[in-house]
Amino acid sequence: HRYGTTEEQFAINAVTQRYHASLNDDALLRDPLTVEDYLSSRYISKPTRLFDCDYPVDSASAVIFTTAERAADARKKPVHVEAAALSAIRDMNFWQLDDFSQTSPVHCAELLWSRTDLTPADVDCAQLYDGFTIITFQWLEALGFCGVGESGPFIEAGNTRLGGSLPLNT
User: Fold this and answer.
1) Which residues have a Cβ under 8 Å from the Cβ of 57 and sit 6 or more positions away?
2) Cα-based torsion angle of the residue sequence 141, 51, 45, 151 in order, rounded to the nearest 10 degrees
3) Which of 4, 9, 24, 25 is the most exposed place for a label (fewest CB within 10 A)?
4) What percent of the chain has pLDDT over 70?
């Protein structure tokens, strides 16, 4: 509401993410989703629709961190981590937040960028938590991939699609 983000922009994000998921044989939901499908889905809590919400999925994964020296002998080429950050809001009672747009992504992004000489311009693609549509929009802005309030138009312009300036959750 504050920035004029439209339901159509949320729809484009959901459609793009579903398309990217369709390319993964292990994805839970691979059937095509259209803007019309999104806009005709029921509201959960306006403006949030069914396709904006996380699906309950239990899974596990692991990332193993080691030194560059030890990783040099690995069978697969290692991925070197330049910087990392973790942040959380003061509590999980979202209704108590002074400003829902200024939650942990903002603090986490500031911390992350303070630990590296890299900038948003150095990022070729982003793999952001997308459990709820609004969180993806918050991360894009907090990380500086677009200006505050500009994530809707950024997504609508096709920047987060494959071939865009910042493919998202590929």
Assistant:
1) 28
2) 20
3) 25
4) 94
